[in-house]
Amino acid sequence: MLDDIKVLFVAGFGPIVRDVEANLSLFRDTLRLPLSAGSDEPDYFTTSKLEGVKHFGMWPLYRAAMSCFGQPEWPADLPAPNAWIEFDVADIDAATRTLKAKGHRLLVEARREPWGQTVTRFLSQDGVLVGVTLTPFLR
To answer: Is 22 within 8 Å of 31 (Cβ atoms)?
Structure first.
């Protein structure tokens, strides 16, 4: 029997961008989202100040590749994603087992990130980079 995946909330979402400046023009300057650069990642623009959203971030493609594969190039044998979304779940290990059992190709499996989040990542059928996460600082 598979474990149930219990999604608690959307931990974060946003576009995966190839041109940071062009996307800043849209999201910050035109839409007036209160985006600011990360202190450790000056080309990752983010906000936690949108009503109803835990985290919105413009994630450069090379950074997504680094996070998933440890290299700045997205692998040629996988479609490059245009967006990312992370669902915080009650049990990250159970969610990871269920995704694996259902045949999803996991790019990252229950890895603890330096900022304290634990994440499992995979691509959806339409190329969205999906994460199931345990994010203590958002709970």
So the answer is: no
Number of other CB atoms surrounding residue 48 within 10 Å: 12
Sign of CA dihedral 77, 113, 82, 95: positive
Count CA atoms within 13 Å of residue 109 on its CB side: 11
Burial class (CB in 10 A: 0-12, 13-18, 19+), 68: buried
- Report the pLDDT value the prediction gives residue 2, as an integer from 0 to 100: 61
pTM of the model: 0.87
Helix (H), strand (E) at residue 55: none
Tell me the C-alpha distance between 54 and 66, whole Å.
23
**Contacts with 39 (C-beta within 8 Å, 6 or more apart), sequence order:** none
Structure confidence by residue, pLDDT tens digits, 55-114: 999 999 999 999 999 999 999 999 999 999 999 999 999 999 999 999 999 999 999 999
CATH code assigned to 7-138 = 3.10.180.10
